């Protein structure tokens, strides 16, 4: 139905155009030897074909609905002079360009491609290298960013930009992109109804994905790997996080996922693997954690500050150094029916549920919170003994923080 | 053969050997006697290097033995308590000692027949009686041809026949001009075979000489009384 | 020395205890793998076994062997064999047979389980290597204790005490001093304290594989360098080897002076 409508829409456009849309070719021996030149001449709904070659251009301003398509991997070399393409019109498509050497500035956020106050844009199959900011959306709505590859060379946070940045945007689809070695892989600020799916964000200096003040967003099936700190979702509501993988975010302030002031959200079917902290939660309420796998993390879950009404259900906690760490004695969250590989209880009635409740918070995690150096005693027999005595009669850990129905076998989440 | 000069050894505060000077010539049977705790075994172990003396020298064939080990190739030693690694079979033990003294000719077959050990060759040492163990012990001691033979209580636990065989063995070695050092509590045995007596008392050599000389010195008609008289006079 | 080693080794290989030890590990391996069917969990449980049980068995076995083989020793002392060879030979005989029981006993079930096709092979090899090193260390310490104590009961007592100290008490004191001095920079101290206890050392060596994500959560620069690079692995292994060499050296020296 949607497709039909779309086709009809294209026909309508074609028929309404005063003159039929033209193809403008750009190459060394073509009518146009620069993209800037072609863009200037192009009329609405024209298509510019950029052929193989290297184009030393920057500040290409697009102010009309046109399509730019690359053929044979042409390269636009900005020679570090500034921004490359700025879009200030609706219905612009840019496809397959290879853009390198975006200018770096401490005062202006130069981007490889910037979309300003526009709608219905499509940025796809772009390759962006040696850049400051990659794709920068400013108050842009209803667009798509698909299958782009962004490879930065960020070394310091203050002199690098973000791979894909959305600022005050609405209803944008970010799908199938690969972002590497920039400051934040994907950054959202004041952006709602954004769908981020099937992206790979890795080796970035700061966050693989960073949310600020953005609501009703969804990110699914992304891979976040080896980023400086992981993924940070802050001051946002109604976020759906599903089927993502958070891996190998190692370091002193690193985590797979940081939730800060996040309310009414869902974290389902994600995998947290080999992170220093799987999920770091601060001041988050009414968040559902269902069917996630926490595997080989330092801390699967670090809960700090006021967190109320969160539900942890049917997750697998596998071989984490610490399953859950709390910094207070209060608990208002519910742990129910999870699988804990550290569980040592039994199941006499053979219903698959352990007969003895599991206490995921160990005394040792408190000690480590207090004196971090004690981490070196992890898994020592002495520590096991004091953990055991705490388990028998909790003094430091929240008394009601138990999983009353721990599963005996890892939970199969089923495919989604 | 063996020269001991000014040998001292303390175990804690206990002066076991206090200045032993002793020269043992080549050839002949020497009995080291003395009451319990007089230092007989310590003296023997010092010669073997099992006890490290506090001071003094031990020379064997003119060589100082401290921290040496090759000289033990020239010594056959029969320890007092015949306890062996229990998991080994008799055969294995004999082969092991032969292996450790590779390069020396071993006459074990003859000895095994002499002490009728053949049926025990495949038994584990932990399953043998004390007497049989002692026989194995004797085989291990006499199977090599060495100029110096040291026997610590060789007669203990032996049945009369084996006892006779032992005496024959010792005499045969003597004929071969060997030097044989023996400690024993069986005075009859000592009297029968020893050429010379070394009597230790409180870590010193009280007497050294032949049995006849001992009898003359103590003015006693027989050997046992002579020994007894030393002990009683020294007590006073 | 190799002759003595050979005989001690064969003697031990034939003793009931080696079989018990071997069967214990075999059974443990089988139970862990085939009842649980979970390789990662098995490796973690194994680690606990290795850092606690291996030292205990090493000490007890070492002391026991020394006292039980006194007569054997005396027999050898009268033979033309170098003194140090006798003791080092016996020590290596015991340590080798224990280490072999461990490696083969645990190795077999894991091989049958298909460890070679698993990514856990490195963790597992590290476990076995650490276990073997711990066997050598604690057997050597046991020999030192036994050489220093004629009295069997005393020797056993000290050996158990040594184990208890290294496995539990040391960490208790360690933890208390860390908490007591928490206002001071402690990362150098805690690394040094780890180096001084072979049980902790082996534990840290295994942590480097199993819990690296947690270890990297700590801020100290020294920690970061230690755990974040190969430095930790190299230093820990080196220290463990040193922990084998030093007691072995002590055995050598004590053997030279001891009376029998």
UniProtKB/TrEMBL annotation, chain A:
InterPro entries hit by this protein: Carb-bd_sugar_hydrolysis-dom, NosD_copper_fam, NosD_dom, Para_beta_helix_rpt-2, PbH1, Pectin_lyas_fold, Pectin_lyase_fold/virulence, SCF-Subunits/Alg-Epimerases
Key word Heme present: no
Signal peptide feature range: 1-21
Family matches, as SUPFAM superfamilies: Pectin lyase-like
Domain Carbohydrate-binding/sugar hydrolysis stretches: 50-189, 196-356
Organism superkingdom: Bacteria
Pfam families assigned to the protein according to its UniProt record, in alphabetical order: NosD
Protein keywords: Repeat, Signal, Ubl conjugation pathway
Pathway: Protein modification; protein ubiquitination
PANTHER family: F-BOX ONLY PROTEIN, F-BOX ONLY PROTEIN 10
Protein name (database record): Nitrous oxide reductase family maturation protein NosD
From TrEMBL, chain B:
Record-level Gene Ontology MF annotations: ATP binding
Domain called ABC transporter: residue spans: 2-227
Record key words, sorted: ATP-binding, Nucleotide-binding, Transport
Pfam families cross-referenced by the UniProt entry: ABC_tran
Record-linked SMART domains: AAA
CDD domains documented for this protein: ABC_DR_subfamily_A (cd03230)
PROSITE patterns: ABC_TRANSPORTER_2
PANTHER family (UniProt xref): ABC TRANSPORTER ATP-BINDING PROTEIN ALBC-RELATED
The protein's name: ABC transporter ATP-binding protein
UniProtKB/TrEMBL annotation, chain C:
Pfam families in alphabetical order: ABC2_membrane_5
InterPro entries assigned: ABC2_memb-like
Keywords recorded for this protein, A-Z: Membrane, Transmembrane, Transmembrane helix
Transmembrane residue ranges: 20-36, 42-67, 88-112, 124-148, 160-181, 201-221, 233-255
Signal peptide (from-to): none
Domain of life: Bacteria
Record-given protein name: ABC transporter permease
Source organism of this protein record: Christiangramia antarctica
């Amino acid at each position: 139905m949607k497709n039909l409508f779309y086709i009809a829409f294209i026909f309508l456009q074609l028929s309404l155009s005063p003159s039929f849309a033209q193809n403008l070719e750009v190459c060394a021996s073509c009518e146009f030897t620069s993209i800037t030149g072609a863009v200037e001449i192009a009329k609405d709904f024209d298509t510019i074909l950029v052929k193989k070659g290297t184009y030393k251009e920057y500040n290409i301003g697009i102010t009309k609905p046109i399509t730019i398509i690359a053929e044979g991997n042409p390269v636009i070399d900005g020679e570090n002079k500034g921004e490359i393409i700025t879009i200030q019109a609706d219905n612009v498509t840019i496809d397959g360009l290879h853009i390198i050497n975006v200018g770096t500035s401490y005062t202006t956020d130069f981007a490889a491609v910037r979309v300003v106050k526009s709608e219905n844009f499509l940025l796809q199959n772009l390759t962006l290298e040696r850049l400051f900011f990659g794709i920068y959306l400013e108050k842009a709505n209803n667009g798509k960013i698909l299958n782009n590859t962004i490879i930065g060379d960020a070394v310091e946070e203050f002199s690098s930009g973000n791979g894909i940045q959305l600022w005050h945007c609405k209803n944008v689809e970010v799908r199938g992109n690969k972002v590497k070695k920039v400051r934040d892989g994907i950054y959202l600020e004041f952006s709602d109804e954004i769908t981020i799916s099937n992206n790979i964000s890795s080796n970035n200096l700061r966050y693989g994905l960073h949310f600020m003040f953005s609501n009703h967003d969804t990110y699914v099936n992304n891979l976040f790997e080896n980023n400086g700190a992981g993924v940070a979702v802050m001051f946002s509501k109604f976020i759906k996080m599903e089927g993502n993988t958070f891996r190998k975010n190692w370091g002193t302030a690193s985590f797979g996922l940081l939730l800060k002031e996040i309310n009414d959200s869902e974290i389902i079917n994600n995998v947290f693997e080999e992170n220093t902290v799987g999920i770091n939660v601060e001041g988050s309420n009414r968040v559902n954690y269902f069917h996630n796998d926490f595997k080989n993390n330092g801390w699967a879950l670090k809960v700090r500050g006021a967190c109320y009404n969160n539900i942890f259900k049917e997750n697998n906690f596998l071989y984490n150094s610490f399953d859950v760490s709390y910094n207070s004695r209060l608990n208002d969250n519910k742990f129910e029916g999870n699988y804990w590989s550290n569980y040592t209880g039994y199941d006499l009635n053979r219903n698959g549920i352990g007969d003895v409740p599991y206490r995921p918070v160990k005394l040792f995690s408190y000690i480590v919170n207090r004196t971090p150096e004690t981490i070196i005693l992890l898994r020592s027999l002495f520590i096991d003994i004091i953990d055991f005595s705490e388990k028998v009669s909790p003094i430091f850990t929240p008394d009601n923080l138990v999983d009353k129905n721990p599963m005996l076998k890892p939970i199969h989440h089923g495919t989604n | 053969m063996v020269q001991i000069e000014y040998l001292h050894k303390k175990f804690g505060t206990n002066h076991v050997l206090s200045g032993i000077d002793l020269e043992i010539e080549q050839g002949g049977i020497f009995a080291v006697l003395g009451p319990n705790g007089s230092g007989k075994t310590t003296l023997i172990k010092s010669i073997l290097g099992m006890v490290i003396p506090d001071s003094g020298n031990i020379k064997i064939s003119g060589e100082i033995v401290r921290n040496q080990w090759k000289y033990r190739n020239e010594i056959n030693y029969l320890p007092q308590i015949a306890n062996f690694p229990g998991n080994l079979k008799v055969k294995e033990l004999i082969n092991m000692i032969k292996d450790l003294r590779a390069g020396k000719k071993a006459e074990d077959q003859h000895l095994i027949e002499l002490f009728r050990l053949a049926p025990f060759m495949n038994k584990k040492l932990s399953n043998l009686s004390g007497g049989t163990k002692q026989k194995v012990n004797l085989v291990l001691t006499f199977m090599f041809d060495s100029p110096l033979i040291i026997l610590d209580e060789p007669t203990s636990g032996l049945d009369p026949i084996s006892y006779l065989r032992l005496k024959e063995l010792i005499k045969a070695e003597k004929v071969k001009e060997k030097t044989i050092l023996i400690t024993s509590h069986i005075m009859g045995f000592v009297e029968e075979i020893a050429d010379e007596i070394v009597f230790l008392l409180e870590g010193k050599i009280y007497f050294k000489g032949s049995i006849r000389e001992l009898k003359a010195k103590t003015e006693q008609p027989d050997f046992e009384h002579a020994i007894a008289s030393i002990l009683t006079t020294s007590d006073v | 020395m190799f002759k003595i080693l050979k005989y001690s080794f064969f003697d031990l290989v034939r003793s009931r205890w080696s079989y018990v030890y071997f069967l214990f590990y075999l059974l443990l391996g089988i139970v862990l793998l085939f009842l649980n069917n979970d390789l990662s969990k098995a490796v973690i449980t194994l680690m606990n076994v290795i850092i606690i049980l291996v030292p205990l068995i090493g000490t007890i076995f070492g002391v026991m062997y020394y006292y039980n083989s006194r007569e054997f020793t005396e027999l050898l002392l009268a033979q033309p064999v170098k003194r140090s060879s006798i003791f080092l030979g016996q020590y290596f005989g015991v340590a080798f047979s224990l280490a072999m029981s461990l490696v083969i006993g645990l190795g077999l079930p894991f091989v049958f389980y298909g460890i070679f096709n698993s990514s856990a092979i490195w963790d597992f090899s590290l476990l076995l290597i650490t276990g073997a090193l711990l066997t050598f260390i604690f057997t050597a310490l046991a020999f030192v204790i036994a050489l220093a104590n004629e009295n069997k009961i005393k020797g056993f007592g000290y050996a158990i005490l040594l184990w208890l100290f290294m496995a539990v008490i040391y960490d208790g004191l360690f933890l208390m001093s860390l908490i007591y001095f928490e206002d001071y920079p402690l990362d150098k101290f805690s690394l040094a304290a780890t180096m001084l206890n072979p049980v902790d050392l082996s534990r840290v060596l295994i942590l480097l594989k199993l819990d690296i994500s947690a270890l990297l959560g700590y801020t100290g620069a020294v920690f970061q360098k230690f755990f974040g690079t190969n430095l930790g692995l190299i230093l820990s292994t080196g220290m463990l080897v040193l922990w084998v060499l030093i007691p072995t050296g002590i055995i050598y020296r004590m053997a030279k002076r001891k009376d029998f």
